[in-house]
Amino acid sequence: MVSRTTDDYQRMAEAGCVAITEPAFWAGYDRSSAQGFYDYFRLLTGFEPKRAAQYGIEHYTWICMNPKEAEDLALARDVIEIIPEFLDEDNVLGVGEIGLNKNTRNELTILEEQIALAAEHEQLILVHTPHLEDKRKGTRITIDAIKRNGKIDPGRVLIDHVEEHTVGMVLDEGFWAGMTLYPNSKCTVQRAVDIIETYGNERLWVNSAGDWGHSDPMTVPRTGIELKRRGHGPELFDKISFRNPLTFLGQCAKFKVRDA
Ligand SMILES: [Zn+2]
Questions:
Q1: Ion ligand 1 neighbours, Cβ < 5 Å
Q2: Domain coordinates of the chain in residue numbers?
Q3: If one looks up domain 6-249 in CATH, what number appears?
Q4: pLDDT tens, 185-195?
Q5: Which residue in 122, 118, 97, 98 sits closest to 108, CA to CA?
Q6: The model scores a pTM over 0.90
Q7: Which of 70, 145, 167, 242 shows its CA 20 to 30 Å from the CA of 200?
Q8: How far is ligand 1, taken at its centre, from the CA of residue 231, in Å?
């Protein structure tokens, strides 16, 4: 939401959205110091929940050093040092979105250190997987890094940005899989519904991209329309857009949204 206007909160509320979770990620520019991240984390934990509340939406967030800015090890470690104080904030659900951007050695080092941080603080984990040709390889490297840690229950990890060629490996290993929807690139509404029809609806859910590029929170309600068009009953949309997120996020005691 750091990149979005209140119009989006308005439209989400009108579409029936009751809660959102915002990953810590790139903020539209590379930050030059850990202090820049500190201020960003304060925005995510202080101001943004208040802005969402004006539209009746609960705002939750994740805190981490994102993979896109993790190439500078010294900076990344300075940021990792300030993460624990934010993990105690009321609206923080865990560590994320950590992962890989270009599958570099430094990104992997920082990923491993943040997996260890999440284990130490018993946090849920949200994982970003790289786009395009590096996705399959990056997803494999990430899954292996989580397993190597040895202390992480895969049922407490959501691996996001799955597509046709990665969803199977994520689900087979016991992780939750997220499909981040975009209007016409990466995972679209049509492809997400194809994936649901192929892989079922256990440990799988949809969310909308809302970032600095072409993206739209309405891709989630549009998934409901596409499911209906293909003859599915309303329970399926309810499961992949509400009940599954509730089950996963409800593992964090701070997540207050419950079944209606
Ligand atoms: Zn992401």
A1: 97, 128
A2: 6-249
A3: 3.20.20.140
A4: 889 999 999 99
A5: 98
A6: yes
A7: 145
A8: 30
